[in-house]
């Protein structure tokens, strides 16, 4: 009988697998490492352009997610600076609801999220890995993520406005 695949085995992009392994080593069985334990200089180098760090602000219905660090490839792909902005300020409609929902789910379940999706009629593919960070070991106060992209050659590399055409295909949690 074949062994069951683990969460990390489901991650297609090797850069995201590296990030997951780095995070998993730091957490040592906890829901996630503390923010102070994450050293940007120790992050897998090839994932840095795709990295996102968001802080959890507020609680309950007032909870929001503010980007504190955004990799150069992510900002170039979305066509704007994202640092300092809340997730719900950077998009509208269905895509905003989806992204806010992902962050809320991660904070609620305190477990990583991996999603694979596409934009603009599947012309742009993306993989996203979201990992909880916790300073007190009980609640998620930051989210360390990375999002990578694959483009069909004939398309421009900027995907905004994405709220009109996105189709997330797969969402996994361990």
Please provide a written account of the structure:
There is one protein chain. By secondary structure, the protein is of the alpha+beta class. The protein has a single domain, classed as Beta-Lactamase (2-Layer Sandwich), CATH 3.30.450.20. Helices cover 24% and strands 28% of the residues. Strand 1 and strand 2 (64-70) form a beta hairpin. This is PAS domain-containing protein. It holds the Pfam family PAS_5.
Features:
174 residues; alpha+beta; Beta-Lactamase; six-stranded antiparallel beta sheet; 28% strand; globular
Describe the secondary structure blueprint for this structure:
Layout lengths: L6 H4 L3 H14 L23 E7 L6 E7 L1 H7 L14 H17 L3 E7 L4 E10 L8 E10 L14 E7 L2
Antiparallel strand pairs: 1-2, 1-5, 3-4, 3-6, 4-5
Fraction in helix: 10-25%
The average pLDDT value, as a whole number, equals 85
Alpha-beta content class:
alpha+beta
Q: How is the biggest beta sheet arranged? A: 6 strands, antiparallel
Task: Please report the total strand number as a whole number.
Answer: 6
CATH topology: Beta-Lactamase
Shape: globular
Instruction: Please trace the helix and strand order, writing H or E for each element.
Output: HHEEHHEEEE
Assembly annotation: single chain
Number of domains: 1
Q: Strand fraction band?
A: 25-35%
CATH architecture annotation = 2-Layer Sandwich
Strand numbers in spatial order across the main sheet? 2-1-5-4-3-6
List the uncertain runs: 155-167
Helix count equals 4
Q: What's the CATH H-level superfamily name?
A: PAS domain
Query: Whole-number radius of gyration?
Result: 16 Å
Task: Please report the first level of CATH classification, the CATH class.
Answer: Alpha Beta
Distance between the termini: 21 Å
């Amino acid at each position: 009988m074949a062994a069951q695949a683990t969460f990390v085995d489901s991650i297609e992009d090797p850069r995201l697998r590296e990030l997951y392994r780095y995070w998993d080593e730091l957490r040592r069985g906890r829901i996630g490492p503390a923010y102070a334990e994450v050293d940007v200089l120790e992050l897998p180098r090839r994932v840095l352009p795709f990295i996102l760090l968001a802080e959890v602000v507020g609680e309950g219905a007032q909870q929001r997610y503010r980007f504190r660090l955004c990799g150069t490839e992510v900002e170039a792909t979305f066509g704007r600076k994202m640092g300092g902005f809340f997730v719900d300020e950077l998009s509208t409609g269905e895509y905003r609801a989806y992204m806010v929902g992902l962050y809320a789910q991660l904070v609620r379940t305190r477990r990583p999220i991996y999603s694979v999706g596409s934009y603009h009629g599947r012309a742009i593919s993306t993989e996203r890995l979201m990992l909880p960070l916790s300073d007190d070991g009980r609640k998620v106060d930051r989210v360390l993520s990375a999002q990578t992209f694959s483009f069909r050659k004939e398309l421009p590399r900027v995907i905004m406005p994405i709220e009109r055409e996105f189709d997330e295909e797969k969402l996994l949690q361990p």
